[in-house]
Amino acid sequence: MKNLEQLLQIYANDKRGKEAVESLIRERPTNIRFTGIVGAQESFVLSGAYLVHPHRMLYVAETKEAAAYLYHNIGNLLPGKPTWFFPDSYRRPGVYDRLDNNQVLQRTETINKITSSPQLAHIVISYPEALVEKVVSPQVLEDNRISLKIGEEVDLDFLVEILIEYGFDHVDFVYEPGQFSLRGGIFDLFSFGNEWPYRIELFDEEIESIRTFNPISQLSLKNISSLAIVPNINRKFEAAEKVSLFKLLPEDTVVVIGGSDQFMLDRLQGCFEACQQLPKAKPDEDVQD
C-alpha cells in the first residue's frame, strides 16, 4: 500500500498533470486531450489530478466493463473519497428488456449521494448505455419518499398498499431491492435507495425499533432512528418526471471521455436507435435463466 501511495504522488506531482488541472481552473470550459496512456495509468492520472485539485468529475468509459475497472482502481487509490458507479438499469447494457433491481438500486444510491451533498467533489463513473437513461428529478423523488421513524404509528394496510403501488413485491423473505415481508410484528423492507434492507419491529401499530440487517445471515448491522423508502424509479415515474443525469450535475463538473470519440458517438447512436424500439422492461423475477 505504501508503494501505491508513493506511485500516486508521482502522478500527482507530474508537471503535465498539474498544467492540465491549472488549465481547467483558469480557462473553463476547455478541452484537454491525453494521449499515450495505457492500462492502469489512466486511473493514476485521474486520481493524481484529483489530489492536486479535488473537483467534481463525470468519467464516461467506452463500456460497462471499462467503467467498472476504473471504478475499482480509483476506489483503491482514493479511499474514502466520494466515488460512485452509475450503471444502467438492465441486465445487459443496450438491451432494454430485463431490469436488474440491484443496478436500479445502485443508480438510485448514486443520485441520492450527489444530490444530497452537492458541495462534495463527487467522482461519478459511467458509460454510454447508463447515461442514455434519464433519472427521476430530485424534487419528484423527494415528493414521493416515504419516511418512518421510531415511536411513530403506522397503518400497515395502507403502507402495504402504497408499497405495492411503488413497485415493491410482497414476499416471504426479502433478499433484493424492491421486496418487503410481514411476519407478525416484524416488517422487513428492502428499499431501492439503500444498500441493506431494514427490519422494523412493531408493537401494535407503533414502531419500536428500526435496524439494517444482512439478508443472508439475518444478523443485525446497525440500529437507526428513521428511514426513507424510495420507490422503484423505473416503474413508478413517467418520462415527464425524469431528467438527464447532466441536469443534476453542477455546472463546474469536469467531464472526461475515455477512448475514441468516434467509438463513443457510435455507442450513443446505437443506444438511441435501440430506444426507438424500446419494449416494456420486465423485472428480474420474470427472467428465466
Topology:
Elements: H1 2-12, H2 15-27, H3 41-52, E1 57-60, H4 64-77, E2 83-85, E3 90-92, E4 95-99, H5 101-116, E5 123-126, H6 128-132, E6 135-136, H7 138-143, E7 146-149, H8 156-165, E8 169-170, E9 179-183, E10 186-190, E11 198-203, E12 206-213, E13 220-224, E14 226-229, E15 242-243, H9 245-248, E16 254-257, H10 261-276
Entry keywords:
10 helices, 289 residues, globular, four-stranded parallel sheet, disordered C terminus
Structure, briefly:
This protein is an alpha/beta fold and 289 residues long. It is 37% helix and 23% strand. Helix 3 (41-52) packs across helix 4.
Spans with pLDDT under 50 lasting ≥5 residues?
281-289
Continuous helix count: 10
The N- and C-terminal alpha carbons lie at a distance of 41 Å
Largest sheet: 6 strands, mixed
Strand content: 15-25%
Q: Strands across the major sheet, in which order?
A: 8-9-10-11-12-13
Percent helix: 25-40%
Mean pLDDT: 79
Shape from CA axes?
A: globular
How would you describe this protein?
The chain has 289 residues and is α/β, with parallel strands linked by helices. Helices cover 37% and strands 23% of the residues. The protein contains 10 helices and 16 strands. The protein has helices spanning 2-12, 15-27, 41-52, 64-77, 101-116, 128-132, 138-143, 156-165, 245-248, 261-276; strands at residues 57-60, 83-85, 90-92, 95-99, 123-126, 135-136, 146-149, 169-170, 179-183, 186-190, 198-203, 206-213, 220-224, 226-229, 242-243, 254-257. Strands 8-9-10-11-12-13 form a 6-stranded mixed beta sheet, covered by helices on one side. A 4-stranded parallel beta sheet has the order 2-5-1-16, sandwiched between helices. Strands 3-4 form a two-stranded antiparallel ribbon. Helix 2 packs across helix 3 (41-52) and helix 3 (41-52) packs across helix 4. The radius of gyration is 21 Å and the shape is globular. Mean pLDDT is 79; it is low at 281-289.
